[in-house]
Amino acid sequence: MESFIGFWSSTFISQFLSRILSFASNQILVRLLEPELFGIWSVRLSLINETIIFWARDGVRKASAKAGKEEATYYRYSLLPLVIGFLISPVILFLSLRAAPEIDGYMVAVFMTVLGSLLELVGEIWAVPQLAQLQPKPTSRVTAISFLLKSVITVILTKTLYTSPYELMLIFGFAHLLYGVLTVVLFFIICKKPYIEYPTKREIRSLRPFAFQTILQWLFSQGERMILLMITTPAQIGVYGLVSDLCALVARIIFAPIEMSVYSLCASQKNAPVDVISILTRVVLYVALFAASFGPQLGPPLLSIVYGQKWSTQESKDVLSAFCRVMPFIALNGISEAFPNARLPQNRLEIYNIFLAVVNASYLLMTYLFGKLNGPVGAIYSNGVAMSVRSAMALYVIFSECGPLWSVFPNPALLLAFGCISVLGSRLGLKICAALLPVFGATVLFLERNTIKYVFDLFKPKRG
């Protein structure tokens, strides 16, 4: 448990710092760029980078953590992300260039982004065995420092050198390349020369269920972007990129570190950590319920104040409201799916993945149909429907092993109250919603005071 606490604390701090800095730099870029150009940075190039990184390392990290429960084979996985990256990057590069927008310098930016992604995967030689052993501090430090330098330098270069789209594309590509270089250099400085063991057939075979699941999760997380790139305008993509960055700030700072930590804890312990799962699930759900209940009313006025008329369109307000409303499903899906991924044996995990494939195929079809009808808003609500189905599947697995674990859900009376605000918020008006927000906050603190005390005790430094 102490190793889990250290892992969660380090990953939370790292995610908090890196995402805040990335978010801050993007907000400066928002003020400097038109929606069409901002969409290239926040959606197109990010999609290329995240696709290579996610496909190459996500399944490897999970397989390494799960294998460590029985035998310390972490180091045999360390080269696999880079190998996978070299195999898939030419395909990603080819597809990206085929769908390239007519903007000077975009192809150069794509090449630099792919190269930066491969360099980032070199860092997995250090990161994979460390994370599998719940030793995240070096990876956390590298991530935070790299994001800081990348963010600051991107803003400085854009502010000083941007005069045409060509210079801007070079800056965007250089930013991704810089992040990859910094990752390798900082890992070498902090951890010195890496220890490497070559993978055997056993490690490669253990990737099979995770490889399939990685593709499914990528389609689920990035399929929305891909479809929107095909059926919406560049300006709509820019608006979608801005609002998704705002909402992802919550998801990546709070939800992602908790999901990663719960997965590592479930994979490394013989018995399911029921208490920790229940408490952390309630934490993320309360955060998401506040977003879903008060975000649609309070978010759009804040958007107008911060970004001005250029970004304060009705479409941006609708997209922000939609993101807020699906936030509880995003939160529940992320943390609940950590359990089956970590606990199911390989044969059952493969069956589970088949059901996921059916859900994902339905989701992509809904995204295309409703995206054509309602733009980004239709795609976001399709995401929410699919998230709810996936959450139900994951909860079935949790309940099967741990029994009816209803303690993962917030207080029923509070759930009803949050639901009423979500439904009636538009009729109540801005001032009433703003007045109710602190009341709800105080009520949650009072009713969940024992949970809060438990969390503080859990993370309180031990003396001696």
From TrEMBL:
Membrane topology note: Multi-pass membrane protein
Statement: the UniProt record of this protein carries the keyword Endoplasmic reticulum: yes
GO cellular component terms attached to this protein's record: endoplasmic reticulum membrane
Principal cellular location given in the protein's record: endoplasmic reticulum
Record Pfam families: Rft-1
Keyword NADP among record annotations: no
Listed pathway(s): Protein modification; protein glycosylation
Subcellular location: Endoplasmic reticulum membrane
GO BP, sorted A to Z: dolichol-linked oligosaccharide biosynthetic process; glycolipid translocation
Transmembrane segments: 77-97, 103-122, 142-162, 168-190, 279-299, 351-371, 391-416, 428-447
Domain of life assignment: Eukaryota
Keywords tagged on the record: Endoplasmic reticulum, Membrane, Transmembrane, Transmembrane helix
Coiled coil start-end: none
Function: Intramembrane glycolipid transporter that operates in the biosynthetic pathway of dolichol-linked oligosaccharides, the glycan precursors employed in protein asparagine (N)-glycosylation. The sequential addition of sugars to dolichol pyrophosphate produces dolichol-linked oligosaccharides containing fourteen sugars, including two GlcNAcs, nine mannoses and three glucoses. Once assembled, the oligosaccharide is transferred from the lipid to nascent proteins by oligosaccharyltransferases.
Protein family: Belongs to the RFT1 family.
Protein name, as recorded: Protein RFT1 homolog
Native species: Tritrichomonas foetus
Lineage: Eukaryota, Metamonada, Parabasalia, Tritrichomonadida, Tritrichomonadidae
